[in-house]
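I have been asked to look over a protein record a colleague put together. Alongside the sequence sits a line of tokens, each denoting a local backbone shape. Please read both lines and tell me whether the tokens look consistent with the sequence. Take the sequence as given and treat only the tokens as open to question. I have pasted the whole thing underneath without changing anything:
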Amino acid sequence: MVVRGRRRRHGRRPGVEDRWLREADPDRREFHLSLGCAVETLRIAAGRFGLACRVVTPPSGPVVARVEVGPGGNPHRDVALFDRITERYTDHRPFRWTPVPTPVVERVRDEVADFDVSLRLVREERPKRAIAELQAAADRAQMGSEAYRRELGRWIGNGALGDSWPFARVGRAAVTHLNVGGREARRNAALIESAPAVAVLSTADDDRGSRVAAGRAFQRVALVASAAGLAVHPMSQILERPARRETLRGLLDLDARPQHLFRLGFADGSRRHTPRWPAEAVTVDGGATAGEE
């Protein structure tokens, strides 16, 4: 099975490329991370049904990742993770001040190590406060850009956040025409400071293969967290511009390049899923490739 990203053409269903956020993600870092999440989900699902997967990430060319599927998988290895694929969700609410259990931390570290991805788990107040301040500055800068707000508003208007049609339209108008950066900065900074742990995934290199690997690692971390009753919340704004990304790297004294930042902890109350894209919304050609053209 091949999944290729294609630009939208008249009369054609949107492809992966149409979900690239050009203003928020100019270097496609998040685009490649997302493909890595999709690739790992495919690998886990294939393994559950006794199929083995080999993932290839060519260094260049239109194909970002190729998944070769064949017999020989272990259907028992990732059963718990497979069962969480449809349940995993992103939680934007404040987390309880309950430490992440040590066994979960150890499992998460083991998962990311399999991909040559490093994990920095920030639990101390001072560095979390510094990250929160950097997040607030990123929010104000992003929301100060009209092009960024138009892009965000377009996705909100399409219902990407799960709002009903009237609320989605109102949200689109508000985000597009009002600079709500101050409000978002205060809200997201508070979310970071209140979380028991803020996690950063990093890689030695910054090529697209490394980013795909970070996405694969994050998908497994998110599923492990879900299986343990924890929630995750990616917060990407700091990493969306090179200068702030380097500031975070220096702040945490990282040798590697930060690829993904997210909150990890326990949330109270009922879970709320945003809608999943239907399978028919993705352009598919026979084979297992996620790419860009």
Observations:
- DSSP finds nine helices and nine strands in the chain.
- The chain has a mean pLDDT of 83.
- The beta strands are 2-3, 51-56, 63-71, 118-122, 197-203, 231-234, 257-265, 284-285, 289-291.
